[in-house]
Amino acid sequence: MPAPVRLLLIEDDVRLAQLVKDYLTHENFSITVEHRGDSALENFDPAAVDIVILDLMLPGMDGLKVCSGLRRIYHGPILILTAKSSDIDHVMGLELGADDFVHKPIEPPVLLARLRALLRRTQSAPVEQAPGDNLTFGALSINVRAHEVRLGGDVVDFTTQEFELLHFLARNAGKVLSRDDIFNNIRGIEYDGLDRTVDVRISRLRKKLQDNPSQPQRIKTVWGKGYLFVGDAWN
Known about the structure:
This protein has helices at 14-25, 37-42, 63-71, 87-95, 108-122, 160-171, 179-187, 197-208, and strands at 5-10, 29-34, 51-55, 78-83, 100-104, 134-137, 140-143, 148-151, 154-156, 176-177, 219-222, 226-229. By secondary structure, it is α/β, with parallel strands linked by helices.
C-alpha cells in the first residue's frame, strides 16, 4: 500500500467536510480539515501537504484571498469548490493560481477523479532526460526534467499546470493549437465550448512571461482557431 496522499480540505460546512473526509479516507488519503480561511493560511505547512481542496466561501478570509496566499508559498495542486452559478469565482480562482475546480453539490466520484488527475501530473515518476527535454527560444529556456523556466536568465515561478501548458505550447511552436487541443492536454477531457480554464491560464502565462496582454507577440491569439506560440519572439 503506497503512503496516503496528504490532503488539506478547507471547507466551512462541517457536514460536507466530514462527508468528503470519510469518502477520501477510504481512497488512501490522509485528510486535515480547516474550517476558516484565515486559520488555514496561518497554519499551512507546504512540506506537509500534497494537494489542497479549497472552498471559496469561507469565514475569516475568503477563498480567493486564501488561494493567493497559498500560491506565495506552495506550488502543489489546488482544487477549488465553487457553486455552479459562480462562473466568475472559478475564473478568478484560476487567475490566482488554482489548478482545477469542482462544482457544488459535490459528487464524490467526480471529486476523486479530479484529484487523481491532478496528482498524476504532479507525482509522475522522473524520466531520463532526452535531448528534447530542454527547449530554448532566445531568452526563454524550459528545462522539463527540472520543471524550471528562465526568461533572460531569471527563474520564472510556475505552478505545475502552468508549466505543463507552457511546455505543450512550446513543443508545438509555430502551430496553432485549438482550445480543444489545449483543454485535452491540461484537463484530459473534451472542451465543452464554455469553460474558460484555457483562456485564464494563457493570460497567466502572458503576465509571467512579460507578453503584452493587449497586444501579445509571444503567445498569440488566432481568432476563431486558438493560440500560437511564436518561437522567434523571445529575443
